[in-house]
């Protein structure tokens, strides 16, 4: 617009000013109202705020950890929702917000899936896993939905059932939805009578719902066709070797085998660096040979390693990228950190192997129900991981009895207890360069506690004279 070249334009502007004043006043009213809402939101947030207990402490219980994540997400969203443009005048607040990361739905789903995995592996009903902390009906329903979407219909059923039993007038969860999901998960699990029972309940609540009628008749037809009706109320106890080992049910340490194991002080074959401070060495398993070294890292070094790693952690990958079989975060640390250089040197002294082609030290922290499912550390590339040196950085309170397991054959195995400050060493490759098929291993899901480990993967190149090759097919 050009105002100087038309008197009418300027006349119109007077009208506009009147409108503008009106809306300006309305805007102020709205802002005032907004301030009131914000104040009341802040009051509510302050009410639910209690003095920070050690957050690491809270994260030890997986159910509490799930709850905390969910609450934080809701509250942070609540704060951000109230932001108006005028807030951007408050630099400090804006700065805080710019760096705020709100947990996404994906995080909540991941936490819920962690709970479900724990239940599967340790054979736990919802009541078993909620010994310390209970979930609300809404939270339980969310866990149920996550289980349902992963086709874990029995666990989904249990959570929906728990949700139904704890439903209150304040719950956001709808009873009809719950009945629908209860019926549908029972059907998908193969328990038609239970599916029919809940379908019927839903129909009683909602007698005009034609969809339910159609579904019920489908369930009845299937019930007549099917011969087996698995009992959805009883957890199946069949399990893989991995699961049995994690539960501590099998351990092939027969007394005969145990007697052949030994422990001693070692100087790494006369390494001058270990002459005055020999390392405590214990053979934990004979085939493949697994050696435990006790007290190889001090509490102070552990704290430093954790502090360096914390801000650098990112989701761990496997050879195929990010994967559900490995739920942890990790970081590779360079030797620029004196503590890392020290630890690497110690590993070199103890193993007598060259660190020239080794990978950087990897520090790893597991998540809710975090685990590393059975895998081999080495494959058949040119310069493979000849050995793994795994340090238990911190395993405070891990109730799952076992940190890492080595599965030997289909029905055998050994479960190693994660002991803080100790490390275990094994060779992934035979002396002839082939993968030792007995070195398949896993990290059991963390049932309780915060599990940190540090890995040093030592590679083949440079070990020619330290671990001579063999031409034998067998060794
Ligand atoms: O955390 C564990 O106990 C096992 C870790 C592991 O096997 C790996 O990182 O390759
Ligand atoms: Fe591994």
UniProtKB/TrEMBL annotation:
Chief location of this protein within or outside the cell: endoplasmic reticulum
Source organism superkingdom: Eukaryota
Cell compartments where the protein resides: Endoplasmic reticulum lumen
The Fe2OG dioxygenase domain, residue ranges: 357-460
Classification via InterPro entries: Oxoglu/Fe-dep_dioxygenase_dom, P4H_N, P4HA-like, Pro_4_hyd_alph, Pro_4_hyd_alph_FE2OG_OXY, TPR-like_helical_dom_sf, TPR_P4H
Enzyme class, broadest EC rank: oxidoreductase
Pfam family, one: TPR_P4H
Keyword Glycoprotein on entry: yes
Keywords from the UniProt entry: Dioxygenase, Endoplasmic reticulum, Glycoprotein, Iron, Metal-binding, Oxidoreductase, Signal, TPR repeat, Vitamin C
A Gene Ontology molecular function term of the record: procollagen-proline 4-dioxygenase activity
EC number(s) per entry: 1.14.11.2
Cofactor: L-ascorbate
SMART domains recorded: P4Hc
A GO-annotated cellular component: endoplasmic reticulum lumen
Family according to the record: Belongs to the P4HA family.
Function according to Swiss-Prot or TrEMBL: Catalyzes the post-translational formation of 4-hydroxyproline in -Xaa-Pro-Gly- sequences in collagens and other proteins.
Name assigned to this protein: procollagen-proline 4-dioxygenase
The organism of origin for this protein: Onychostoma macrolepis
Upper classification of the organism: Eukaryota, Metazoa, Chordata, Craniata, Vertebrata
